[in-house]
Amino acid sequence: MADIISGKIIKGIGGFYYIDAEDGHLYECKAKGIFRNKKIKPLVGDNVNIEILDPENNLGNIVEILPRFNSLIRPAVANVDQTIIIFAVSEPEPNFNLLDRFLVSMEKSGVETIICFNKTDLSPDNMEACRSYSKSGYETIFISAREGEGIDRLREIIKDRTTVFAGPSGVGKSSTLNAIKPEAEAQTGAISDKIKRGKHTTRHSELMHIGGRTYIMDTPGFSSLYVDSIEAEDLKEYFPDIAAYTGKCRFNMCNHVSEPDCLVKQAVADGEISRIRYEDYVMIYNDLKEKRKW
Ligand SMILES: Nc1nc2c(ncn2[C@@H]2O[C@H](COP(=O)(O)OP(=O)(O)OP(=O)(O)O)[C@@H](O)[C@H]2O)c(=O)[nH]1
Ligand SMILES: [Zn+2]
Q1: Residue 194 lies in a domain
Q2: Residue 240: which domain range?
Q3: Which residue of 18, 151, 201, 217 has the lowest C-beta tally within 10 Å?
Q4: Confidence class of residue 34 from pLDDT cuts 50, 70 and 90?
Q5: Is ipTM strictly over 0.95?
Q6: Residue 36 — pLDDT band, cuts 50, 70, 90?
Q7: 254, 214: one domain
Q8: Ligand 1 center–CA 174 separation, angstroms
Q9: Which ligand neighbours the alpha carbon of 219 most closely?
Q10: Final residue of a domain: which of 68, 95, 111?
């Protein structure tokens, strides 16, 4: 009878799954039989039990997928504790509309999100705009991957959790990841060498093990984001700062767009709600009203 141990799937390629196991080894496994019957496909991030078939070559078989508490479709990953969305305060200029759409989509998925503005060493014109996200209802941190500012806070945030890092190209995602995991670098390289074998063209979802129960998934940069299947009237619930006013305006069903005596519009005027976010809200609301996809 082979040994059964637990671990986490950190990568899956062509029917093989790579398990970071509790004994500290990386196992190459197949998922035989039972999954085909149960129609459940193992996902990166799944906690699994594996049967060790060949201890010398670290080969095994996944025998059980432990219950998932959530899963994302893009990137395909299970058991995500949080997402960190990275933008740069400058170079490239932050696309706040993209940020707000991203936040809506994460709100919809139910995964907690932290906003991270990088490159604070540059002294940009739009620092105040970035700072206004501190009032968005999301934890908002400011870092400089180049100078190491804010990296300790980032390390605290990711500790013992599974975190998806997302952000547009060029904002310094790689630099930030390198800043938080200098010691894990060599290990990641070793794993990649073993796994890749000439498959450089496709980008697969992969969790990086930072140590302990800390895992990070780096996602490819994105430049647009389409979230559909939200009714315009429900959009306000996906903006925590705006949702706080639901039912409090003169009109109980106020959508905070063109209704009179709207407390949200008042809060924007008073600087309690970010004007940028409010304007994005109205833009997305109107798009949804017109049933255009955005
Ligand atoms: N001034 C400044 N530049 C930074 C900082 N972090 C990264 N950069 C620079 O920004 C550029 C992009 O950094 P990367 O880490 O490659 O960015 P990325 O988000 O991983 O980019 P993609 O690979 O396109 O997704 C590089 O020239 C970095 O040197 C920072 O904190 N301050
Ligand atoms: Zn209102």
Answers
A1: yes
A2: 232-289
A3: 201
A4: low
A5: yes
A6: low
A7: no
A8: 7
A9: 1
A10: 68
